[in-house]
Structure to design on (324 residues):
């Protein structure tokens, strides 16, 4: 019995000895790598280095959670509808938006605007649509590059993530057809679709003018063809308008009006879709300000968020004693 205790004590001693040595080795490795990263950061231009020192990566990861959930839900929306039974109980509605709009406005604004179709208006409509895809990234760069706007970085990511997530969740739960589909679709007696216009809507004219298939290629790959309401094309510029937009509120408001008219003009959305996108952004903004958000609203323009800063002072440790 005594011999077993001695053996067990020696084994414990060796394991503890190995753990201590591994701890020292890993600590030394971490410090050396940290020194390499620090040296690399020092070699960056001043404005880039300044940006990297104010990013709190824990806050950054937290702020991206709603946006990541949106990307997952958007890309797998058909599987989500199938698993929840929504594709059986709530099929796409082809007429409700048209009926509601006619009851409210006594007309269909997209039909009125489409009568003005010409190559110049088509090009003007294409600009905000093409800008829509890189817009969040461009605005993030703007916030990072503008010291007075950096406190709004995490709140913007959180804000835009929730707007997209709630918007897509509504579109998946209550799918609605866009006007280009409603105006062109032909059904048989059983309600099966015999024909519908190309998914790019009014942009088919621009593809024809330019001799390309840019917009057809973009929209034919969309995993959510019946997501007319609310319009996230309009919601995103509204988010920027409500988050200290570049160029001031006039530029932000102009962007919202521009994308709204473009979406209606090319028959991608009804007017109520655009208004729904604006309403969604406003409601999420109010919820963030009045209900809850992990990121507090900066009290003034000069407030810099409490960020974990990198330590640029470094010397290679020389006092590690590794016992063998």
């Amino acid at each position: 019995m005594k011999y077993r205790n001695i053996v067990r004590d020696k084994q414990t001693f060796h394991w503890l000895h190995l753990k201590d040595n591994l701890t020292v080795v890993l600590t030394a490795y971490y410090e050396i790598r940290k020194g390499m990263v620090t040296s690399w950061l020092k070699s960056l231009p001043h404005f880039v280095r300044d940006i990297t020192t104010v990013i709190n990566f824990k806050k950054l990861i937290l702020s991206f959670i709603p946006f990541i959930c949106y990307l997952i839900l958007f890309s797998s929306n058909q599987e989500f509808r199938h698993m929840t039974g929504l594709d059986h109980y709530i099929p796409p509605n082809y007429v409700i938006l048209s009926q509601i709009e006619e009851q409210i406005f006594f007309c269909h604004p997209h039909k009125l605007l489409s009568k003005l179709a010409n190559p110049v208006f088509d090009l003007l409509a294409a600009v905000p649509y093409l800008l829509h895809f890189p817009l969040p990234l461009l605005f993030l760069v703007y916030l990072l590059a503008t010291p007075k706007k950096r406190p709004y970085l995490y709140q913007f990511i959180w804000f835009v993530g929730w707007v997209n997530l709630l918007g897509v969740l509504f579109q998946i739960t209550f799918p609605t057809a866009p006007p280009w589909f409603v105006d062109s679709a032909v059904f048989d007696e059983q309600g099966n679709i015999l024909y519908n216009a190309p998914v790019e809507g009014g942009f088919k004219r621009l593809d024809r003018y330019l001799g390309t298939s840019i917009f057809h290629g973009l929209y034919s790959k969309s995993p959510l063809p019946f997501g007319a309401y609310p319009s996230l094309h309009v919601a995103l510029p509204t988010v920027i308008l409500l988050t200290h937009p570049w160029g001031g509120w006039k530029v932000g408001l102009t962007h919202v009006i521009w994308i709204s008219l473009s979406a209606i003009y090319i028959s991608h959305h009804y007017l109520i879709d655009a208004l729904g996108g604006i309403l969604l952004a406003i409601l999420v903004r109010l919820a963030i300000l009045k209900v809850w958000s992990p990121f507090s609203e900066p009290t003034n323009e000069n407030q810099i968020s409490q960020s974990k800063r990198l330590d640029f002072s470094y010397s290679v440790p020389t006092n590690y004693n590794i016992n063998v």
About this structure: Residues 301-324 have pLDDT under 50 and may be disordered. The chain is about 65% helix and 0% strand. Residues 27 and 320 are 9 Å apart (CA to CA). The first helix runs from residue 2 to 43.
